[in-house]
Amino acid sequence: MTPTTTTPRGVTGSVALRGVTKVYGQGGNAVLALDRVSLDVTPGEFVCLVGASGCGKSTLLNLVAGLDRASGGAIELGDGVNPGLMFQEPALFPWLTVEANVEVPLKLRGLPRAERRARVAELLRTVHLADFGRRRPHQLSGGMRQRVALARTLALDTPVLLMDEPFGALDAMTRDILHDELERIWSERGLTVLFVTHNVREAARLADRIILLSSRPGRIIWSTRVDVPRPRRIDSPEIATIAAEVTDRLRTEVGRHGQ
Ligand code: ADP
Ligand code: MG
């Protein structure tokens, strides 16, 4: 046993990928979706993952979420954290009220009823849906449904949020509002966020760091820090400049593949 520790491990909220490879299928039908992807996300960091359609963004997120297994390499989550995952579709239970939807993870965690009630109320306040607890999902707008999904994910009390194009189906105005809300919740709770989008402006608006994946197989080909002070505006010149640079890189990459 060596008494010296070189790397601090098990830091809550950290996400580390070490040479992660994913192959779907076998033999002649095998598809290399991710090729030796290494990435360190520090606790509290907001990282946006950008890349062309089919480059492996969802694959990467699903591996981190533990929904699927990597073919090679390793994924380390600080303190064995179980991340929360959010998709473009809010995937709410249509027969349950908003309150009951948010309560599901709390029930699964075995919280007593009174505590669940208090937590649900607090979470609905957090996403500005305090007055909508008794509604059902079909009575809400798309943006409101995504807020419910966010509240339900926050109910997991996990420090790591994985988001796969969560606002991709929303109109620009609604998305803009949800960016502000997500940023507020992220900073208040000190969350670590890994956010997938193909919208470069959205990435520049939200990220501390933008990571660009190549077309299949997905490899990290470029990354940049976004040092624009918060709060940010998606239509500000600083964000536009960064978005333009990412778009250029993305174009070059897609062009290289003759798509
Ligand atoms: P993205 O989210 O960036 O659009 P995905 O991660 O969904 O990309 O997919 C990456 C590649 O892996 C694509 O070529 C896709 O067709 C392939 N793929 C994804 N899931 C599967 C699967 N379950 N079986 C076979 N191929 C898959
Ligand atoms: Mg995807």
TrEMBL record:
Residues 15-242 form the ABC transporter domain. SUPFAM superfamilies: P-loop containing nucleoside triphosphate hydrolases (SSF52540). GO terms for molecular function: ATP binding. It comes from the Bacteria. SMART domains: AAA. InterPro entries: AAA+_ATPase, ABC_transporter-like_ATP-bd, ABC_transporter-like_CS, ABC_transporter_ATP-bind, P-loop_NTPase. Keywords: ATP-binding, Nucleotide-binding, Transport. This is ABC transporter ATP-binding protein.
